[in-house]
Amino acid sequence: MSAQTHAAMSEAVYLALDHTSDHKYEYYDGQVVALAGGSAAHNRITINLIIALVAQLQHRDCSVYASDMRVKIPQTTTYVFPDVAIVCEPEAFDDADQELLLNPILVIEVLSPSTERNDRGRKFEAYRTIQTLQEYLLIAQDAKRIDHFMRQSPTLWTFSSLDSKEESLYLPCIDCTIAMNTIYNKVKLEPEA
Question: Which domains does the chain have, with CATH numbers?
Fold first, then answer.
């Protein structure tokens, strides 16, 4: 999804705007960012992930949420819409309507040219303050490439990168494996050099 930054506003004004608007906005400690729709590749990857994860988690106490579920990160006064968020019981929300998820265990972002810098930078910095978060994935949409970050301790994250040579992605925090070909099913990729 592409993004456009708007003037600073208070948290209360942001939440009121978001509840009355037809558009989605993320909030970073006063800075509001409007989100635009994603490409066909972005949508296919996201849907492929959700289908594969729901199939594996359907009989477990975990829920898979798509990009309409907002995650609230109180330590940084941040509200974001990850492409995919997974939470395992007990789920925690900051509101009675269950629109503000507090405790994802896994967050996935599908990279776009306009959002990659933010997904790797301030968004990941904010995500790292979520105590329940164990894994963070950044998935390219122009090539078979996944950056996988795993929490080792409250302050230590390890990084691994998977590419087209890998057969599958293993997610230890939810004990799920997804084939790379499943993630990139029907996605038109740039030819490999």
Answer: 38-183 (3.90.1570.10)
